[in-house]
Amino acid sequence: MSLFDTSKRKEQQTPEKKPELKVATSSVAKSGRPVAVAVIGAVFLAVFVMFLYSKAALSEVNLKISNETQALSDAQSINTALSNQLSGSVSLENVEQYAVSELGMQKVSASQERYVEMNTGNMTETAKNDNDNIFVTVQDWFNGILEYLGF
């Protein structure tokens, strides 16, 4: 009969359950998690915005550099063109053409050339003046120095 006794059977079949350990989370720990996630998200957002700003500033500086490089290249090409134009306008043929057309000059012909021979010695001599005083002598000496220097 013991086989047919259900009350005993239930007691035997059901093993004893051990109590489960549950860690109690406090409300402070639960409330801190969203705040930490928000702070970390804000930090990541700030880093991302700073990264985008630095890329934009770098792009702007690179654009300015390329514009100034292009302006320098244009100025150098204009300088080369003006230098070539200046060297062409100062050539001997252009000067000769300007002298003939604008100033009415002409080339020297053989009939216009006259050679003059000069005596290499002194052409004039000044007479000595014996009645010069000391001041006139100093003035003559000073004038001689100025004449020697080319004044």
The value of Rg in angstroms is 57 Å
Shape: elongated
Q: Which percent bin holds the helix content?
A: 55-70%
Largest sheet, in brief, is: none
**On the 0-100 scale, what is the average pLDDT?**
81
Q: Report low-confidence residues grouped into runs of 5 or more.
A: none
Can you write the helix and strand succession as a string? HHHH
Keywords: Membrane, Transmembrane, Transmembrane helix
Organism: [Eubacterium] siraeum DSM 15702
Protein name: Cell division protein FtsL
Could you characterize what this model shows?
With 151 residues, the protein is an all-alpha fold. Helix content is 64%, strand content 0%. The chain has a domain at 30-109. It starts with 5 loop residues before the first helix and ends with a helix. The mean pLDDT is 81. The chain crosses the membrane at residues 35-54.
What would the keywords be for this entry?
transmembrane, membrane, 151 residues, mainly alpha, transmembrane helix
Quick synopsis:
This is Cell division protein FtsL. The chain has 151 residues and is mainly α.
